[in-house]
User: What shape does this take?
Amino acid sequence: MPEKKDYYSSYGQKLISLFAKLLFTQRSHSLIELSRMLNCSKQTVLRLVDDIRRSYGVKIEEFLEGKRKYYRIKRLSGSAPSINVTESELNALYMCKAFTEHLMGKKPLEEASQALEKNQATFLPEQAPSPKHFASFISGSIDYTPHQDTIRVLIEAMDSGRICKITYKSIMAARTKTFYIKPLKIFSHKDSVYLHACLARAPGKAYREPEFNPLLAIHRIKKVELTDRLFDFPKTYDFEKTFKQNFGVIKEDAFEVEVEFTGWAACYVSERIWSPNQKIHKRNGTTKLTFSASSEPELISWVLSFGDEVTILKPRWLYERVSNSINRMQRKYKRTDNTKLPGRHH
Assistant: This one.
């Protein structure tokens, strides 16, 4: 007979986690956000909030913004309490720092290192966690040190709800383009940092609703200027729903993909999550992966990275486009014995 689940221990952990989240962050959190964090239903979150109020006399405020309900602990007068991090928390922070150093830039990296060293000083020398346990290996990374002012201005714009004037050069463009945006979220994907934004009306011009909101690579922003124009953060904006529902950072119309892998790729693919709705079927040394994607260029590049260990089963049009790409590559690299390789002399 399986061991009975310790419901009360699980509930107690959720209770403490919720209380710590509200107390230490000192900001409001939506009911949906708390439900996801605690991996429980909204009804359970409401019960946890009531228990904290009744048992500890903590004043938890709740309010509506649009259709969403938010919670926060009422701010106390005076300075915030000084609380040291635990050994396991500091180890987790050292790990996060090591794994994201290539995305931070010199100044933020120095500030993060100083903050960690301050907390390390609270431990006895023989008990202090060590940063030497963690590292990262990144090839082809971008140096974000020159882009720290851009990130700082964008953070200021998001904090104050101000529209920005952006000068941007996309990867294939011959020249820069200037437009106005409402910055929503800075996020990392693989080894790059992006800004997701809403397009704003240019002064003196009529606004035209774009097909897709701007997705901007931070290192391609040539100039960003704060304006005096304010905007309200969209109440219905949901980063998780926008970006984490299917494969690809570029968000166009989603489509279903079915791909079969062999050899090392079969094991590699089955260890990872490519989209929340994926299905994996293993049979006779092969792995069939079914999932949704929203970016054709990213998907084709991903498929080609597996060489001859992958076959596209569906959709047919994707199979044909990958096949055409392989044929073009083959023509480029096909040569006779007397053909010289580029850059080589015989």
